[in-house]
Amino acid sequence: MNENIFISIVIPNLNQGKFLSQCIDSILDQKFNSFEIIIIDSYSVDESDKIIKKYLKKIKKKLIYIRKKCGQAEAINYGFKIAKGKFLAFQAADDYYLKDAFNKFYSFSKKNNYANIIYGNIEFRNLKNKFLRPLNFNFVNSFSLSYEGMVVSNQSTIFKKTLLNKYGYILDMRQSFDLEFWLRLSEEKYFKLDTEKPVAVFRIHSRQKSKFYNFYDNTLRQIMLENYEKKSYFYFLSKNFLRSISRFCRFCIHLKKGQFKYIFLYFKKKNF
After folding, report:
1. DSSP character for 151?
2. Angle in degrees, CA 34, 38, 43, rounded to 5
3. Does domain 7-215 have CATH number 3.40.1080.10?
4. Distance CA 177, CA 90 (A)
5. Integer Cα distance of 26 and 43 in angstroms
6. pLDDT at residue 245 above 70?
7. How high is the pLDDT of residue 271?
């Protein structure tokens, strides 16, 4: 790891040429030099290769470009392994950072050098880049991640590379690998930036792989229940009963048909 590089941004790409330039430009426009961009392209058949090679000519020392036939999670892990930054981030090719995001992360990390995970707020925009609404994150731990889902976003989160040695890499899952990853890292404290202004954009459009709050399947739910409830959940329920019931109802809404029986049988078996 090169301490001279503050952050490595890994961007997996497959046929996202329509958005790719804005994603890369949002990094180059940060007025922050201590970064590297790692793009793992799974042999896109659109204009992605041409676009990336154009940037290679401009910022060859800042951009690593690899073509590798792989899934999204595998691409991100590959980028993590070759990254030289102290902090890591993975950004979707159709999303992007807002002005001064990296300066905010850098300044916060200098003031709080014990912070291993730093996150900020995001805002939603549509396909035409029209602002829709902001989304503020405030309560990030294993409970909120398990019962409310993505209460933190990879678009606006960075973490120290050293955490990979302790918690491992991203699981090769078709969906929800980011949620599962943040859950594993939730043994660490999540530190929020000292600003409510969004630092990144999550783009809403029909071609995106998943909707922001629709991340649940049987496998992931079982992982969450078996690994992240334990004593802290009982304490939270006993101290904040009404709020817990509300969150549990919201959690149930996300479940697919047929999963309720499994959930209640699990609670009964565990004497929850």
Report:
1. S
2. 165
3. no
4. 12
5. 23
6. no
7. 35
Query: Any idea what the Cα angle at residue 235 is, between residues 230 and 236, rounded to 5°?
Result: 100
How is residue 2 written in tokens?
A: 């090169």
φ/ψ of residue 96, rounded to 5: -160, 165
d(Cα 63, Cα 52) in Å, to the nearest integer?
Answer: 9
Mean pLDDT of 1-9: 80
Among candidates 33, 147, 42, 21, which has minimal Cα distance to 96?
Answer: 21
Summarize pLDDT for 157-183 with one digit per residue, the tens.
Answer: 999 999 999 999 999 877 778 988 999
The answer, yes or no, to whether residue 126 has pLDDT greater than 50, is yes
Please tell me the pTM assigned to this model: 0.78
pLDDT at 146: 76
Residues of the chain with CATH 3.90.550.10: 7-215
Token pair for residue 126?
């549509």
- For the beta carbon of residue 68, count every other beta carbon within 10 angstroms: 13
DSSP per-residue string spanning 194-250: S--S--EEEE--TTSSS-TT----HHHHHHHHHHH-HHHHHHHHHHSHHHHHHHHHH
- Nearest Cα to Cα of residue 224 among 271, 257, 266, 162: 266
Tokens of 69: 């036939």
**What order of strands is seen across the sheet that includes strand 35-41?**
63-67, 35-41, 7-13, 87-90, 157-160, 117-119, 190-192
Query: CA of 175: how far to CAs of 133, 179, 257, in Å?
Result: 24, 9, 18
Closest CA to 40 of 78, 71, 64, 12: 12
**CB 199, CB 102: distance < 8 Å:** no
Q: The dihedral of CA 37, 10, 161, 106: what is its sign?
A: positive
Euclidean distance between CA atoms 138 and 145, whole angstroms = 12
